[in-house]
Design brief:
mainly alpha, rod-shaped
Length: 43
């Protein structure tokens, strides 16, 4: 299976779905931090 399949969670494989959830949470956290830094550069 390729990384795009894992990223989307388009699989029945439990381990691949777990990786998808893990990556999604990390991306969301990174986006939140990036946006906060943009709004307050002194942060």
């Amino acid at each position: 299976m390729d990384w795009l399949t894992v990223w989307r969670g388009d699989t029945e494989d439990d381990a691949a779905r777990a990786v998808s959830v893990w990556m999604d949470r990390r991306l969301t956290a990174a986006q939140t931090e990036f946006r906060a830094a943009e709004q307050d550069p002194q942060r």
